[in-house]
Each structure stands twice: as structure tokens, then as C-alpha cells.
Amino acid sequence: MFWGEQAGALIQSGGAPALFRRRLSRCGKIEESRANPATIGHHCIMQIHLSPRHIRLSAAIHAHVASVIGQVEDLAEIFAAHVVLEHDDAAKPADRNSAKIHLALQGRDAFATATAETIHAALDLVGAKLARQLRKKKTAAIDKPRRKAQRAGKSA
Length: 156
Description:
By secondary structure, this protein is of the alpha+beta class. It has helices spanning 59-73, 119-155, and strands at residues 18-24, 30-34, 45-53, 78-87, 97-105, 110-116. A six-stranded mixed β-sheet has the order 2-1-3-4-5-6, with helices on one face. The radius of gyration is 18 Å and the shape is elongated.
């Protein structure tokens, strides 16, 4: 059973892995469709695994997950994303909902977790944490050649 086509993507319900195929159209627009696991190639495809735990998924949650991953995707090339959404009735009201996202990237992977009153707030917090991590990684990659050039200039 599939939920609605929120954000142009089909996500399988029930905690089973969902696959997306993302490609850039000729006009520069990103198009998404359900991917066949047998045709997954090296580029242009990102797998998103969505695992709900003690929570019923809705189309709004699916759309929110897709938007959070989409915002983070602008900062780095993501090969796969594993999203775990949990609800714990025994926790304090402020910490009942938690979201964990693990991103498979080139080099070291990125991981973040957050808890909040609502699952949407937890997803926003996790997205902000991942964006911070990826910006830091990108800045370090850009500054490394600069530092090497400065050291070479000082020693000459």
C-alpha cells in the first residue's frame, strides 16, 4: 500500500524501505519517482528508508521528511538516508517524539537525533543539526587547500 504522492514521491508505508529516483530534467527541475532496486546506478539516485516506531505515518509526515531531506540534499551529495521516527508514551511530554536521520555520504557519514513534543518539530531540529554538520564539512573541505597554499607561501 502506498500513500499519496506528496512532494512528487511515493513512500511505502509500514516501515518497509522506500526508494526514490531523483533526476535532473532538461529544464533544471528535480523529478522524483519510485525507483526499482534492480536499476539503482551510481548517480542521480538516493534511497530513503523510513522506519516508524510506535507512530502512525500520515501523508503530512511523509511530505515533511521529504522536505527535510531535500533541504539537506542541497549541501552535499547524499547516497542514502535512513530516517527513524519514534514515539514513546513513557517519556516526558517534551521528549515523547524523536527523529533520527543517518545520511550516507562520500567520506564520513552524518548522523543526528533530536526529541521534541511533536514529530514535525523533531524533524526540523534534526534537519538543522544535519545542515550544520554538512556546512562544517563543506567549509573544512574548501579551507584545506587554502591552508596548504598559505603554508607553502610562508615557507618560500
